[in-house]
Structure formats: C-alpha cells, structure tokens
Amino acid sequence: MEVLLGKTLEELQAVAQEVGLPRFAGKQLAEWIYVRRATSFDEMTNISLKGREALKAHYTIGRHTPVAEAISKDGTKKYLFQVGNEARSDEARYIESVYIPDNDRATLCVSTQAGCKMGCRFCMTGTLGFHGHLTAADILNQIFSIPDADKLTNIVYMGEGEPMDNLDNVLHSLNAMTSAWGCAWSPKRITVSSVGITKGLKRYIEESECHLAISLHNPFAIERQEVMPIEKVNHLSEVIALLKQYDWSHQRRVSFEYICWGGVNDTPKHANELLRLLKGLDCRINLIRFHADPSTPPLRGETSAPSNSSTSFSLAGRLRGSNEQQMEWLRDYLTERGITTTIRRSRGEDILAACGMLVNALNK
What we know:
Elements: E1 2-3, H1 9-18, H2 25-35, H3 49-58, E2 59-60, E3 68-71, E4 77-82, E5 94-102, E6 105-109, E7 113-115, E8 130-133, H4 136-145, E9 154-157, H5 167-178, E10 190-194, H6 198-207, E11 211-215, H7 221-227, H8 236-243, E12 254-260, H9 268-277, E13 284-289, H10 324-336, E14 340-343
C-alpha cells in the first residue's frame, strides 16, 4: 500500500481526488497527518466514512512505533525502528534514532539510510555497509513516533547514512517539517549533516533553509583521505569553495564537525590550517570526543598511541581521543583567532548512542 506520510499538500490533494473526495480534503489529510499526528484513518472524523474506507483500501498513513529502546545513565534514549521493504538484508531492515534531552532543549538525531556507504574509518555505522535509502516516511516516522515526540525542540540529521546521498527523501521530509501545511517548524531548529558531497550540497543549500553541518575532521587532504574515503572524489577544498559562494551570516548556519584524535589532528599545524582553510567563511566548529570502536584499523604508518591520549585501548596503533586539555587548547586557539569553537558534550556512549556509534545494536 502507498504511504501518505511524507507527501506534500499538493500530493495529498491528488490522493483525495483519486479516492473520490473533494480536493480540499487534501488539506484535511495534511492536518491530520502532520499537525494532529493521526495514526489511523478512523481518527479523521471530518472526512466522510466512505472517504475513510476508500483511503484504507489504497493507502496507509505510514506510522509505526519503535520496536526496542535503551536508556543511558545520562538520560539519552536510543530507539530501534523497522524500515521499509527496500532494505536488502535482515540487519538493514532496522535503523536507530537518538533522543537527547538537555534542560529545556530536546534533540532527536535521525537516520536517513540503513547503514552507510561512506566508509569513514572512525565511524562504527560504516561497518554495517549500505543497505538502502530511507523514504521520507521512514525519516519522519522517527520524529513522529518516539514517546517523547511532543517534547522535541530540535532535529539533527546525523544518524545512520549520508543525507546528501538520499537527498530527494531528505528534502521531502524537511518540506513536511517546515511548511505551513505541515509541521510548520522553523528551519533554524533543524540541522543536516554531510561528509561533503558537492553536488548534493549545492542543491540542499538552494532548496532548503535548514542549517548545515560538514564532517571535516582533518584540514589536510591526504590525512583526511586516510579516515574519510569521500576525500578521494569530493575534495574538502571544493566543498569549502562552494560554501563560500553563499551568505551564512543571517538566518542559517554552517558548522564543521571535528572529532579530535590525540597527536593526529589536534596539533598547532592542524589548527593553523583550519584557520587558513575557513578564512572568510562565517562558521563555527564543534569539537567532538572520539567514541572508540575496538575494530577501528590503524592509520597508515601509525605504530603506537600518541602520548597525550586519554582513551584506553588494548591494542597499540588505534585512533585515540585527544585529552581534555588538548581539546580545550584547540577550542581556545581557534576561538581567539576568529572561529567560534565549542566542545560538544558526549551523550549516550554507554548504550552506543553517541556520535558514530549507531550499529543497530538493539537488534542484536
């Protein structure tokens, strides 16, 4: 059956006419789906019984609740969802989302693909491989169907997958979230992340008003390529050049995510290259603590752990997180020289819900 969640107002108006309802019923459908968050056609009492039966015969709303959840000691919650039929393996039929409460702020980190094809060497999600795009309904269902949905203040598209690699469905979901006929959220409450796929980025910037976050992690191309294969085909320098063509000084923001590894990318050399690379771009940098996966392979030529590492590993040669002192130095160094830089607080690591740790563990 065809799913209604994710459809635009115009598409819902066409659906209404297809089942014999007047065109204005499409607006009623949009209100029930996006505002009232209906989970069944029976709730749609201002639509005729005959019309509801006709809708049931050909369509489904597309809502389904999580199949499992885990709660961190810090209050973070991770949810497991079953996704559509296009997934190509048992594992790929599931994806995870993360709810992060923080005083008067509540953020949901949503997935856009089942697994991921980008293969970043520091990211546990990449070990899943790629198993299919999520539909707009799959994306929106994560937002609508968690128990804490009514508490959400912000959404980040930073879960499983690369949003620019599934851009049609991502844009459809953003349209439903921000349009007056949909959820009417401010685009400033939503951030979409990307490793930097220039073709998709250009379209995203021009078709959406939501914030953008770029996974940077190393300003030197050769070193970045060691941990992010995307650098081989979509060079960071080209991504930055593209971003500099747009105005980021007003309603929307561009930020850079930067996982810190001791002695690998947290040195004065890297700090100065970041300043050079981002000069003239109104942006901010978020420093992220490394959340280790014991299967992380060593970098080429690295045989021992950096002396300033604070993360314990049983094997030498692994990527190791920078210590707190070095991260604070990097934050202050960049901020004092004109790029606002913060250290993101790590959440949910004990339930594999922190950055880069989504591996559908709740399905194990």
